[in-house]
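DATA SHEET
Item: assembly model
Revision: 1
Owner: S.N.
Input lines:
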Amino acid sequence: MENPLFHELKKHLSEIKSIEAVMMLLVWDQQVYLPNGGAVARSRQLAVQAQLAHEKLTAPIIGKLLDDLQSYQINLPYDSDEAGLLRVTRRLYEKAVKVPPAFKARLSAHLSKSYQVWTLARPANDFAAVQPYLEKTLSLSREYAHFFPDYALIADPLIDFKDTGMTVAAIRPFFAELRRQLVPMIKDIREQPLPDNSCLYRTFPTAAQLSFVREVIKNIGFDFERGRQDLSPHPFESLISIGDVRMTTRVQENDLSQTFLDTLHEMGHALYDQGLYPDFEGTPLADSASASVTESQARLWENVIGRSRYFWNYYYPKLQAIFQEQLNSTSLETFYRAINKVQPSLIRIDADEMSYDLHVILRFDFELQLLEGTLAVRDLPEAYRERFKADFGITPPDNRDGVLQDVHWFDGVIGGQFQSYTIGNILSVQFYEAALREHPEILDEIAHGEFSALHNWLKEHIYRHGRKYTTMELIQRVTGKSLTIEPYIRYLRTKYGELYNL
Amino acid sequence: MENPLFHELKKHLSEIKSIEAVMMLLVWDQQVYLPNGGAVARSRQLAVQAQLAHEKLTAPIIGKLLDDLQSYQINLPYDSDEAGLLRVTRRLYEKAVKVPPAFKARLSAHLSKSYQVWTLARPANDFAAVQPYLEKTLSLSREYAHFFPDYALIADPLIDFKDTGMTVAAIRPFFAELRRQLVPMIKDIREQPLPDNSCLYRTFPTAAQLSFVREVIKNIGFDFERGRQDLSPHPFESLISIGDVRMTTRVQENDLSQTFLDTLHEMGHALYDQGLYPDFEGTPLADSASASVTESQARLWENVIGRSRYFWNYYYPKLQAIFQEQLNSTSLETFYRAINKVQPSLIRIDADEMSYDLHVILRFDFELQLLEGTLAVRDLPEAYRERFKADFGITPPDNRDGVLQDVHWFDGVIGGQFQSYTIGNILSVQFYEAALREHPEILDEIAHGEFSALHNWLKEHIYRHGRKYTTMELIQRVTGKSLTIEPYIRYLRTKYGELYNL
């Protein structure tokens, strides 16, 4: 017999979750099927649902139930689902009630304008146009952080929104060390001849690409009875309910690896969501642990598996069979080197596996400097150019493909926007090593197109726990250690050392 | 400067409309794209939104605003949008507050079970299984009607839900007269040899059928920038917002006319919704006038236009060009006679244009008798068989394809469920005659694949008014007369008289 107060709390949470699910569907539909004429009404629909969800979550009854349940909570084992649910709910409730609705409205109105200005300023290479908006965003970001005053550094509460428990102090040393290692490796690689990756840029008809990736994700374990795959201009994944997980794919006829790797990335998110413990449905536990952990699952499949020799050992002959004309004269080794070509370039989202993190760390560092006041917004373009030159050996020729390239600071706050990408990379390998320790047969399975040992391990150790544990708690549980970059650096050194004779 | 109370009321209404739009999308998605695994969560999402919409509509503030706005309303011209909005809102509010939530919950729980039982009972031809459920439904239907006690006949409030202002007294004489005319006509037709309609049942590949109907609806005026067409097992149309109107199509490879006529039917609903006055967005005026009026728009395109010689004069050569092998030896006249073949049969939804209304009138009459207590549920199967024999000259061999065929009484109340289909047919011709009086060139245009005169007339006289006028008010405005069946009977007599030498 469930505690009646707990039961009542769950009723409220289920209603909130249901409204959030509706918002996910509204956004999914907006990206995938909404006709142009429906755009204005759709914004309104989203705003109304967001308002309803916020009202329900911040209703006094939630706070009262949480308070009244404290004595119940104390006696629950920490690992119990009930205790997890109460911890997470308390966290969400506190975060929601601490930010005054008037501030959120002000922030959201400002960011709408800022985003509009950015969409014009970026193609026009016009940093001056966004500068006042970015300055306002910075000041609003600080104001936002101040609603959570018990921080060590002002970026901490903003990071905490994406990764509960993560702080600058916990992240910065890892990022600094990673950068220290990556910069010379990339310099070494730049001094070598570029591998020929032209095999990826022939013409690969959409339908054939789609049928190939569909076959792959089905074989790996994406459940089409409990999810969908659709096309959209920007690939994304969406958890509508545990039995309704939707991923989208963008097919580029002249870029084979893009379609493929994007799809594996979204599938990584989707496998996670499909693997949530079904009883979590209708509670805030029915979600990924954090932005970093879900990113780790996406990057695991995209990079660690999807760019590996093991994987292509099985799949490359199948790919060749589909694209005979395009790939018959390309060996597995050439293909493997093509999809792992390292070539530092200007754009983060197009970066190779090796240089990607340098883009992220650079942005993370600038967020801290901006928030701490050690860098002024007006000096950002110059600082960006200098840092980029130092890290990549290239000077960005303009702001368009420099500091203006990412939407994050223009439709969101400054702070907490980027670190999850690199923590996700670090974790992808830390988790994978743990899986391999327990199941060394995983590598051999993958080389034969089998994924169940790995998939089952992920389900059991990561997916099923949903949001019950924080990122740090989960890392400890899964790997027996705290966050560490050693496995990730070892992985990069081994893989790219072999490829580039480092 | 808008009256501030009116402005406030509109804010509330916009929120309600937005929630209703979300419900439309949830249902659309459920029918079109929802993976199986999402079904349970989807029901929950719908229930939560329905609850929210109900709470918002029945909130005391709505009643207070309506009361406070009475002096404002009195001074508004009857035809003004403001007056229309206040009338419609008052109506919706009264209907919503008069039904206790506990009763609605009871009804809805009962109908869920009743529907489940019916899904098994129909294929098993087992009326006994549904009888107790139907008896309970009948008693709940009466209870429902009693919340609106100022009726002449108990069916009136139930009819009023679908067609404000319509009553048994207003409808029954027309239905009786229509039946009196149809029964002997159908008898005459049954004594003649059947036209050969085998040309419709060859194999017509899905993609080609789809591309044909898509071309047709685009040419008629369906705006793909403000709507979509998708596939679904049961065709339907859905107004999500005035700029986001979605219709679905079911393609049957071995039934050319089914795909085509279904599509024109849904397109008729969709043109109506796309033609609503854009300023009505976010208000309850952004809807069709009634179930009958939107049905009239569907039937106009499906039957009056879509089964006409004028229409096929232009489109049949195009159809032949697409399906050369299948149709080259079939003349326009043979095709025209095929799509207008009259052959009374057991199933309402498969009925031809001539016998369709007899199915409807029969059900309407039974609803009245059941509600009035002059027919017991247990006697319904026998009564159905007798009446069917009298009207169609055929005795249904079983209940499955007799009284059990329609879902309406098993997932909804008894009363008000069917009349709109036949009023829609009657109105389709009454409206069309009015359009032709004003624009005799319509016929010639249609014969040349032009639809703008008719479409513009419909926009101006019907679509744009949305729900501002009741069915009866709209008929009067559009045709200068009250509801009359003469045009419809004249139309049927002329068309089928010529086809069957009556």
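QC remark: The longest strand of chain B covers residues 244-249.
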